Amino acid sequence: MSAANIAQPEGFIALPGATQPHYGDATVMFRFKDILLLAMFDISTSRPLPKDLLLMTFKTSIDDAVARSELTTTPGSLLNTLQDFAGMLNEQLSGGCVSITVAFIDTHRVWGYCAGDVRMGYVRAGTLNWLSPVHTAANVFGPFTDELKSSPSRHILTRCLKLHRTFDPVYFQFDLRDDGQLVCATDGFWCDSHWGNAQSLISLPSQRPIDDCTCLWFNPRMLLAKTEPSLAHNELQFFTQYDHLEIRAEYGAITP
Hints:
InterPro entries: PPM-type-like_dom_sf. This is PPM-type phosphatase domain-containing protein. By secondary structure, the protein is an alpha+beta fold. It has one domain (10-238): Phosphatase 2c, domain 1, CATH 3.60.40.10. It is built from 4 helices and 12 strands, in the order βββααβββββββαβαβ. Strands 2, 3, 4, 5, 8, 9 and 12 form a 7-stranded mixed β-sheet that branches. Helix 1 (51-67) crosses helix 2 (75-92). The longest helix is centred in the first third of the chain and has 18 residues, at 75-92. The radius of gyration is 17 Å and the shape is globular.
């Protein structure tokens, strides 16, 4: 495969959808010594909430967990932090709904939680592989397949962060290869027929996305080897104040 057909080592797409009044996705990343924490949100258009408040509250929840020495990379610790985050939002807002994916990333593995239709996976050798689960009415009884992208029921979320309702995200994890890139995207990217493929990471399609379109991709090993952040975009909040803080890389299936 020629270099012209290989995705750039890293990049970020954040475009408002043609049918949307404003861009409603949000992405934030924290860098620790040897680990990244990535969060991507897709705010509901029918039950919106303020994006600035969402991001500020998420950052506060991470800062508070670090200050209390309660943030570790165990699934239980991350879940507790996310539940605290949801509780903080409940105290400030009367309603709203958002799809959410939050995950720790080291050089070999990804592990975290999701609720809704923000997806994570990897691109390798020109192929995009989506690995985290999707929670829609179109795939209640199994994994989300390409055939379901055109189903009207895919817009109905069966799991999400809905304020003043029980927040019950699903745990996921998968391994990474040294020669691949991690990919995280909202449905405005992965479910759009013109955008949701590896070619979109090489050259942007001329067709404008229908919904808000967000996709972040990078090679974790290469990114963590850099002393300065190389991903810069006004819709990507990248916090590096914890880049010297070492937290243990512990992952695995949750036990009851």
